[in-house]
Structures are given as C-alpha cells and as structure tokens.
Design goal:
By secondary structure, this protein is mainly α. Helices cover 77% and strands 0% of the residues. The protein contains ten helices and no strands. The two termini are 26 Å apart.
Length: 227
C-alpha cells in the first residue's frame, strides 16, 4: 500500500506541472487586476471545475473497471501485472518523446463573458477538464494501478480526491501568491510562473522517462513472469 501511495504521489506531482492550467490561472489573475477585483471567485471557480470533473472521472473509471473485474471474475496474475507495467512504462517513454506545446494559451476568448460573472470560470474549468482528464497519461496510469489492487483500498475515493487535489497544487499556489500584495509575494509569483512556463514541459518529459524506465526495468527483472 505504501509503494502504491508513493507511486500515485509521483504521478500527481507530474500532473501538477500542467502549463495550461497555470496559464489560465495566471490569465484570470491578470484580468481580475485589470478589472480591480479579487481573483478569488474566478480562480477557485475554475480550479473547482477542473477538480470536480477529475474526481468524477476517476471514481467512475475505478468503479467501471471494478465492475468488469467482478463481472468476468477477473484475476490479476503476475503475467498480467508485469505486462501491464511494461506497457505503461513504454507508453510513458513514448509520450516523453512526443512534442509538447509550451505556449501559454490563457487566451482571451473566454475573458469577456466571465468579467461580469466570474463564477462562470467553473464552467470553463469543468469543460476543460472533460477534454484534459481522459488524455492525462499520469492520471490514467494512476487509476489503472489503483484499480489493479485486490481488494480495493477502503478509502480509495479519498485517494482519488487527494490525487486530484495534489495535481492542482501549482495553480493553487499561483492563485494564493497572486492574492498577496507584498513585493516579495509578487516577485515569487512572477518567478514561479516564469519557471513553470520555461521548465515545466522538460521536467515532465524527464519524469515520464524516469517512471517509464522504472516500470520497464521492474517488468524485465521479473521477465520469467512475462511468459
């Protein structure tokens, strides 16, 4: 159980390095400053929407896999476990080799409608989550590893919710820093956004390779179980 939680924590940290979420949070902050209002409502509405759809997707996925396992009386054998590790590891390494968009598309198309009603950012977050979550390789890998536990941990819904909260940690930190008006907080805010924009995607690549190599090596160490 401890190894599982550490692995899920690692995937959540990788998920947190999402340049797009940080970009939109930064755009919400910038627009709020121009409109001379607090970024709290818009920022928390946006991140709350992403969090809600992430948790719902995770719970539905685990329940769906668990239902299929019970329906077909599926048993996770060492053969399937290590082939699964090998497959997930290879996928992570391949994804790390794919080109990533490092631009910050905080875009202004959604800005005008939400200036009068900042809570509408929750709808934006929910919609973005619907497109983002099903394609998040770390999250899908984490859900697959959680679903493979037999029996499922009693607190598995809390584990899913905790993962989703950690995955939003950096945007939350950006929002918290933006709410403070001290010179030091503003300086840290600018440095953090600049660092994430510049180094976020490369760090994600490196972590994908590290996780992928670890899974592949573990599968190869138990190569006798693959046949």
């Amino acid at each position: 159980m401890g190894v599982l939680l550490i692995t899920l924590l690692g995937f959540a940290v990788v998920d947190a390095l999402d340049v797009l979420l940080v970009a939109i949070t930064t755009a919400v902050v910038a627009d709020s400053r121009l409109a001379r209002r607090s970024p709290v409502v818009g920022g928390f509405s946006f991140l709350g929407g992403v969090f809600a759809v992430s948790v719902m997707f995770g719970v539905a996925t685990v329940l769906g896999i668990d239902f299929l396992v019970r329906l077909f009386d599926f048993e996770l054998t060492p053969l399937l476990r290590y082939w699964g590790e090998l497959l997930i590891g290879v996928v992570l390494i391949v994804v790390a080799a794919l080109p990533m968009d490092t631009t910050m598309r905080g875009g202004g198309r959604w800005v005008q409608p939400v200036r009068r009603y900042p809570w509408l950012m929750g709808v934006v977050g929910f919609t973005l989550g619907l497109a983002k979550v099903p394609t998040s390789v770390p999250y899908l890998a984490a859900l697959a590893m959680l679903s493979a536990q037999r029996p499922l941990p009693v607190a598995w819904p809390l584990i899913v919710a905790g993962y989703c909260a950690i995955a939003l940690l950096l945007p939350l930190v950006v929002l918290a820093l933006a709410m403070r008006k001290t010179p030091r907080a503003r300086r840290v805010y600018r440095l953090l956004v600049r660092w994430i924009t510049r180094f976020g995607p490369p760090v994600v690549r490196v972590l994908f390779v590290v996780f992928g190599v670890v899974l592949v090596v573990d599968a190869l160490v138990h190569a006798r179980q693959l046949w």
